[in-house]
Design a protein that fits this description.
The complex is a heterodimer of chains A (106) and B (942).
Chain A lengths: L2 E4 L3 E4 L4 E5 L11 H9 L7 E7 L7 E7 L5 E6 L14 H4 L7
Antiparallel strand pairs in A: 1-2, 3-4, 4-5, 5-6
Chain B lengths: L18 E10 L2 E7 L3 H7 L6 E2 L6 E2 L12 E4 L6 E5 L9 E5 L10 H4 L8 H5 L6 H11 L13 E13 L3 H12 L4 E4 L18 H8 L3 E4 L2 E7 L3 E7 L12 E13 L3 E3 L12 E3 H11 L6 E6 L5 H9 L3 E7 L6 H10 L3 E3 L1 E8 L3 E9 L6 E8 L2 E5 L2 E3 L2 H5 L4 E4 L4 E4 L6 E3 L25 E3 L4 E2 H9 L5 H8 L12 H12 L20 H5 L11 E2 L3 H6 L2 E6 L2 E7 L6 H14 L2 E4 L4 E6 L3 H6 L14 E7 L5 E11 L2 E6 L4 H14 L7 E4 L4 E7 L3 H6 L17 E6 L2 E6 L8 E7 L3 H12 L5 E2 L2 H11 L20 H6 L21 E7 L9 E4 L8 E8 L6 E8 L8 E6 L2 E8 L14
Parallel strand pairs in B: 1-7, 8-9, 8-13, 9-10, 13-26, 15-22, 16-17, 16-22, 17-18, 29-31, 32-42
Antiparallel strand pairs in B: 1-2, 3-4, 5-6, 5-7, 11-12, 12-13, 14-23, 19-20, 20-21, 24-25, 27-28, 30-31, 32-38, 33-36, 33-37, 34-35, 35-36, 38-41, 39-40, 40-41, 43-46, 43-48, 44-47, 45-46, 47-48
Classes of the chains: A mainly beta (106), B alpha+beta (942).
Chain lengths: 106, 942
Amino acid sequence: MLRLACPYCGVRDQPEFRFGGQSHITRPDFEVSDAVWADYLFVRDNLKGMLYERWLHEYGCGRWFNVARDTATHEVRAVYRMGEAKPMFHHEQASSCQQTAKVGAP
Amino acid sequence: MSVGPFRLPAERGVGSAIDRDERVRFSFDDTTYEGFGGDTLASALLANGVRTVSRSFKFRRPRGVYSSGIEETNAFVQLGTGASSVLSARATLVELTDGLRASSLTRRRFDVGRMLDVTAPLWAAGFYNRTFIWPSWHTYEWLIRRMAGFGHAPNERDPDRYDIRNLHCDVLVVGSGATGFVAASKAAESGARVVLVEQANELGGRDAWQQRGSDPGIARLRQLPNVQILTRTCAVGYYDRDVITLLESVPNEGACSGQPRERYWIVRANRVVFATGAIEQPLVFCNNDRPGILLAGAAHEYLRKYAVACGRRVVVATNNDTAYAVARDLKAGGVQVLAVADSRFDIPTARRDEMRTLSIPLHEGTMPIDTQGFSALRGVTLGKLSRDARHIESVHRLACDALAISGGWNPTLHLYSQATGKLGYDARSNALAPQSQHPVAMVAGSFDHEGNSDLGPRLSPVGNRARQWIDLRHDVTVADLELALRENFVSIEHQKRYTTTGMAPDQGKTSNLTALETVARLRGVAPSEIGHTTFRPPFVPVTLGAIAGRAIGKRFSPERLLPLHEWHVRQGGLMQDYGEWKRPAVYVREGESRHQAVMREARTVRNACGLLDYSPLGKIEVHGPDALDFLNRFYINDLRTLKPGRARYCLMLRETGVIFDDGTVVMLAPDRFVVTTTSGNAKRVASWFEEWHQCEWPHLRVAIVPVTEQWACFSLAGPKSRDVLTSLDSTMDLSTERHSHLGMCEGQLIGHDVRLYRVSFTGELAYEINIRAGAASELWNALMEAGKRHGIQPFGLDALLLMRLEKGFLHVGTDTDGTTVPDDVGWGKVAANKPMHYIGKRSLSLPEHLRADRLQLVGLKATTDIVIGSHVRFAGSSEVTDGWVTSAGRSVTTDEPIALAMLRGGRHRIGALVRLHDGGTITHATVVAPPFYDPAGDRMNV
């Protein structure tokens, strides 16, 4: 079970939260090709390492926020509010996390 | 009645755990026995000379008590009878109580299943997968399950209670042996909040026989306010981020004690100390599973704690120093020890001297290679090993009734491994050892029982490998591992899965080490190169009741009641589950069938007036200067043309274009809206709004306020509904001119603030009346009273859904599924014509959504009743199915069978005759364009 530090409420157990998938996904314009749209709808990173994701403190303040979590160890490296810039971590450099900035929505 | 022929008298100085003054009667199968207070079921059975306790899983071999604790692999019994019966209890952990009734899971004496043993070569590893494939596994499953001896699960509801508790601490110490005690004491002295967990019923671990429970140090520890001690509690799982689960079994103090049977603890600890000691490992040789063969440490414990001799003529076989004390103490207790066989050649001089002094014959470089007997051990064949331990140079037989074996000790690292701690094979102790640091969990204690290093061989070099058991519980033999290797299951993880060794209750406690050594030997590599299988929770079997805790029955899921629940029940409302809500499906009167009642209610609405409790309808208020812009991003309908005081029926999509929900958008004022949702989606839609607002459009100035529970909602429907409403004291002008179809007005009704919407799901003139939930009852009664002279009746959801079917109105989730887009249900033009980029719009032009053969919503008419879910086929169709019936019933007005169906390219098939397939029954219907009633909508637009 994860324990997450909601930026508004503090540390709580995972059952209070709902996972919302990968964060920092940009919703494309209406005019994009079918392929780009389908990519936005269905394709997400599936990586071993730092994943930037969003969580809802559903049984708490009801706010969405971002979490940087290592998928291999469950270590939460950062918790930050919606709209804040994604924190970068030295060792992962230009690997997967840079390409994630392309697409996204709920 | 005696307390058993194998019980040693008090003057021998043994039996520290038993109270010889307290006699306890119990029964096993159909025989009554006596034991002492403090006995376990296993010790009492051994004392009474019961050798065969169960039959093995696959070959039905007789099996006896093998250990004295949690590692028991043979002595599984069923406890009690009836509803609170427990299946698969380990006899070694069952505390003996007066009147205890236990039974073996399989027939102990005569057993036809024994044929399976005689024909064992047919049942090698993987035989299930290969053999029971025709016609399917299910043909055989019931028989195999019955024969496997899992016990009988009671059919009745479990009357016992189970609790779940949460616990936070600084230091969790698992195990209360010498190491755990010191760890807990030191941590407690520093002021830390300490939880000390002990699996047994007393503290002290393996030394508990010395009565360490009464040790002054332990007594001091008990009194510290920052220390919590849990006995009879086993740590069973280690989960992500250092959450540990414990299973506590609560001693049964009678049915009325008010205590739960078990507690499941969820512990969050900052540090975890595993002082879990070690589990003794077996030696592997031919017929090493006969009743009477047991682990040497267990023989020792039965002797010291329970004054029970494991036999009258005992042979001790070992590969290490620890079993010598067992031989010594057995002898001191008056038991005849025929020999000690040690598979080592370089036995320490002190051990040789000790055995010589005690006149116990010691055979060096010797191990058991076969045994005799059937339902009880009768003898053992000892083999003298060659120096390289690969051959047997000579053999001799000894007649004995017990064989105590010790293959050294393997640290109990299951939970450390679950915590992602790394383990490796340590060549010095021939066991697994921790090989990494963990940030939170640590392993404490040497596990190095004195003399548990430089061990002799564990595996016999000779004998029939199909008769050498590795996992006794699952009947896995050396031959099975060999077969798996031959079939190229090389990795130890594949070996485990193919042969099931170390799976299920054993979890590798007595089988992992010998399995990996066997595989190493068969492959000709060092055991350290084999690796080990992954340990997973739970460490011991956990009752489902303990995991569920109190969240069963009514507490499994909250039940939501309407403001008028009591009234509906009084009026004979058939209250059914609709999601979490209990709602009246229909009010059945005396002498009526359900169908008749539904038709009566629907006819009343069509002809006069009916009242429906519609309160679960989802209601969300959206306020703010950007409220219109915000909502316009969700619905396929263009809301810019909506005027204050007007309502509109709207559809909402997922980003994939699939229909998510429908409802009414009501504009109270330019910056104030109420949207309704389907009852089941009330929470989901509000959450959906929030997610998009917070994550995608935080700049829009809106507030989203779910108000479903605050407002009760009634639907007053029928041609007489306006008359009923206007006869009440009201501040609103309800004339058609001021309050037309899809109009909204706010005002007072019988002195309460209400919101009135002219929306209709029945197809009749109808009002949705929203009122503060607390005033619901008053208004409901006033409406029923005022409607009396028009023949008003309450109606339920059955009638509502039947009338909407007749009108061809969509019911999201019934007529639609996870693939339905607006055009499939006739909303394509509306969706396409809205110019803005609303959620889901871009997906509507994906090729999949433009196919001509998509399923489309149409009506069906027939002369016989249509069954929901029937598959539809067009004449001459070569497809398996051309669609299916989504809603069906009988027309309220014509009594004709009607239905809605999703058909492949259905809108181009109007007028076609189709076949309906329901199971084996085939009927016919005609495709029509809905609605079936009042196509122009004149009845609601009055």
